[in-house]
Design goal:
11 helices; 24% strand; alpha+beta; 26% helix; seven-stranded antiparallel β-sheet; globular
């Protein structure tokens, strides 16, 4: 999106949108006074904040952005200006031509541990510089680590930074700002910010860089926060020489977490490790696809089951956390510049004035092995045809004979053919017709991308270049009118017989998106297209 000739404060001429988040929208802009390019961010607060809360948080964020402006360091995207214009709050920052680490991971896959260690040293230098000024970043995550075109590594977006451990609090409710997958346990628990909190987030970011996902990734924000409180991090598989760094940073007790000096020492050791010595499994390449095994662009690895040895205290903390979240009423997730080049940003910015968090819906994971047991449906629906019903203002189609209304344990629902085998892998649930090879897969994420077309394009280019779809022929990647925002990626490929796939990424709310994957033999596509439309028409997302 381009703002054309729109000028802010009579000085900043807005250009291309760099990112849209739950609490901000960022543009490349021209500073007409100093004749330079800058990044200009408008602060957008959650729509459900009352006026008094909105004013208080506005004032506090401006105050803390001014504090962040005191930091001058090569690894920090400097804050140039903070102001209010016509009742709207703005932050002007250094513009860094770059890709975010989040974008790199999505497009290129996990990184080699030595490279991650070198990135970690640069981010650590930024945190050290902030610490010397008494500033805590509070939102260190892959989306806020920029890998510059000139080789520079920059930590950006101090928009929710705090001074000496302060937190943003209003009189009626506490608003915990940040991304749950990278948030330190003490911050998720009570909003406390310590110097060690940013180090936890650094550890989670480095973990994601080598593993391809965060250490507490779960299908929902609540599941992530509960795991954060009660579970240990999922054991890394690709960390190699980075293992001691992750082990030291991802300690639940902030007092036991390693400090900045020890973090630097361990990162330097990991960065110096010879490549031949590093134990790094090769990146798996998708095997040729059988008719019953969908392959799609990139789903998170399955979450580890809860550990049997977790303490009673951890369970109590998790329970208390859930209660706090329910009582608090408002939890704002800030996710700023996620995907500058593709336009897929963290948080969704629909066309609403206060857009939220975003990543195009996750996509089907590799199929479960043949020996994986099939789970029984969470809810058994009647098999007889149903009359039309209306759910949340949306009229459902008649349910034909031979179909049932499946209600998933995570909250979404849709019609599926009776007799298809159901299985689950990670966040993905599959339905398979073994007689015809048809496959339906539904994945979900609580961090939607707000540019589904750009997200599919990046995934398609990456997977095709990797050779994952032999004989790939693209039919289209295009936006479709479906819920808040959606796009279809339709293509064929050679998988024994010619296969035909439609992958729909759909953003259903500020914090929820889905991937609906449908695969048939190409020769059977036309006769099964009505079944896919019935699935689309009957799909109901979980309540946000």
């Amino acid at each position: 999106m381009t703002a054309g000739s729109v000028a802010v404060a009579g000085r900043y001429l807005l250009g291309e949108t760099l990112g849209v988040g739950g609490m901000g929208q960022v543009w490349v802009a021209r500073d007409e006074v100093l004749h330079r390019e800058v990044a200009v961010k408008e602060i957008l607060l959650p729509a459900d904040l009352v006026a008094a809360e909105r004013d208080a948080v506005h004032r506090r964020m401006l105050q803390e952005a001014r504090a962040a402006a005191r930091i001058s360091h090569p690894n920090v995207a400097q804050v140039y200006d903070v102001f209010e214009d016509d009742g709207r709050a703005w932050i002007v920052m250094e513009y860094v031509p770059s890709r975010s680490l989040q974008e790199v991971l999505r497009e290129d896959g996990p990184l080699e541990p030595r490279r991650v260690a070198r990135i970690g040293l640069e981010v650590l230098a930024a945190l050290e510089a902030a610490d010397r000024k008494g500033v805590r970043h509070r939102d260190v995550k892959p989306a806020n680590v920029l890998l510059g075109q000139d080789g520079r590594v920059v930590l950006t977006d101090f928009g929710i930074a705090s001074i000496d451990g302060d937190s943003i609090v209003t009189t009626s409710s506490e608003i915990v700002l940040g991304s749950p997958e990278y948030m330190a346990p003490e911050r998720a628990r009570d909003g406390t910010t310590e110097p060690a909190s940013d180090l936890w987030s650094l550890g989670a970011t480095l973990y994601a860089a080598v593993e391809g996902r965060s250490p507490f990734h779960r299908p929902s924000a609540l599941g992530t926060l509960t795991a954060l409180a009660a579970d240990e991090p999922d054991p890394p598989q690709r960390a190699g020489p980075l293992q001691p760094v992750l082990e030291g940073l991802l300690r639940k007790d902030a007092a036991e977490r390693i400090g900045m000096a020890e973090t630097r020492r361990r990162l330097e050791e990991a960065a110096a490790e010879p490549a031949a010595v590093a134990t790094v499994p090769s990146v798996p390449v998708a095997a040729p696809v059988s008719p019953a095994a969908p392959v799609s662009p990139a789903a998170p690895a399955p979450a580890a089951p809860p550990r049997a040895g977790r303490s009673r205290r951890g369970l109590l903390v998790a329970a208390a956390l859930v209660v706090v979240l329910l009582l608090a009423g408002t939890v704002g997730w800030l996710a700023t510049r996620d995907d500058g080049r593709t336009g897929a940003q963290q948080p969704p910015a629909a066309s609403a004035p206060a857009p939220p968090a975003a990543t195009t819906a996750g996509t089907p994971a590799p199929s479960p092995s043949a020996g994986e047991p099939s789970a029984t449906p969470s809810v058994t629906a009647a098999s007889s045809p149903a009359a039309r019903t209306t759910v949340a203002g949306r009229q459902l189609p008649r349910r034909p004979a031979g179909w049932r209304d499946y209600r998933d344990r995570t909250g979404f629902a849709l019609y599926v053919p009776e007799g298809w085998t159901r299985s689950r892998k990670g966040s993905m649930v599959y339905f398979r017709d073994h007689s015809t090879g048809r496959v339906l897969g539904i994945d979900q994420t609580d961090e939607p991308q707000w540019d589904p077309v750009g997200d599919w394009r990046g995934k398609a280019d990456y997977r095709v270049a990797r050779g994952d779809f032999p004989g790939y022929r693209e039919i289209h990647i295009r936006e479709v009118r479906y819920f808040r925002k959606a796009a279809d990626w339709e293509f064929t490929f050679d998988g024994g017989s010619r296969q035909h796939v439609n992958n729909r990424g759909v953003v259903t709310s500020a914090h929820q998106a889905y991937g609906i994957y449908w695969q048939t033999r190409d020769a059977d596509w036309a006769e099964n297209r009505d079944d896919l439309q019935l699935i689309f028409d009957s799909f109901r997302p979980a309540r946000d």
